[in-house]
Amino acid sequence: MKNLIILLVLNIMLACQSQNIKIITPIVDNKFETFDNIQSIVKFDKNQDVLRTFLPNGNYIEILIFSTGKQYDETYKDSYYSLTKIYFPNGNIKAKGISFNGTGFSSGIWYDFDEEGKLVKETNYDEPYQFTFEDILKFCEKENIRVDKGPILQSTGFHTTIRRDVENGQPWWEIKRLKTPDTIEIIKLDGITGKVLSRTEQEYINN
């Protein structure tokens, strides 16, 4: 009887842990900044137009230089999110916010600035969704769908992708997972209730 009680307590503890999924989210604020802030942290040759590397803390960064400006992406080692900062050609911040590391849907509040550095717009990309990303992770856990943290690098095989959008005022989520070695399952859920709207499959060819 004593052993049975211990097992019941352990099961309850494990259930509580699975319901409280810890999510590390990069911090983004509405403060003005310049590309010089990045260059003070990361050694970057001004003659380069691309830099991809890991930081000492395990985060992965990518810096891209265009004729129209610059972009800095940092994917946190133990997070589902990447931090993105976009700069004008003069080095002033243009926009910043966070995105899901797999398929890049924008999340949380994004901040937009004009070329002189004035904050001109704030957009909350989570607002339409009552069924949240945390709810999606719980759904994936229940369905035994693996969702990877950290950087999703090319040539590392298939990774579960998560997308979301709003069509005709109706928000939805889409999960693509490798169901079998040659089959991808696509699950679409209502962005308000979390109800499964459809399940379809397509062939997967591993190149």
Your description of this structure?
The chain has a 7-stranded antiparallel beta sheet with strand order 1-2-3-4-5-6-7, with no helix packed on it. A 4-stranded antiparallel beta sheet has the order 8-9-10-11, with no helix packed on it. The protein is globular. With 207 residues, it is an alpha+beta fold. It folds into 2 domains: 35-124, no CATH class; 133-203, Nuclear Transport Factor 2, Chain: A (Roll), CATH 3.10.450. The protein is built from 3 helices and 11 strands; from the N terminus they run H-H-E-E-E-E-E-E-E-H-E-E-E-E. It has helices at 2-19, 35-39, 133-142; strands at 50-54, 60-66, 69-75, 81-87, 93-100, 106-113, 119-124, 161-167, 170-180, 183-190, 196-203.
Q: Low-confidence spans: pLDDT under 50, at least 5 residues? A: 1-19
Largest sheet: 7 strands, antiparallel
- What is the terminal-to-terminal distance? 55 Å
Secondary-structure element pattern, one letter each? HHEEEEEEEHEEEE
Structurally, the number of domains stands at: 2
Number of helical regions: 3
How much of the residues is beta strand, in percent? 35-45%
Mean pLDDT comes to 87
Rounded to the nearest angstrom, the radius of gyration is 20 Å
Shape: globular
Approximate helicity band: 10-25%
Structural class, by secondary structure, is alpha+beta
Would you count the extended β strands for me?
A: 11
Which strand order spans the largest sheet, edge to edge or round the barrel? Answer: 1-2-3-4-5-6-7
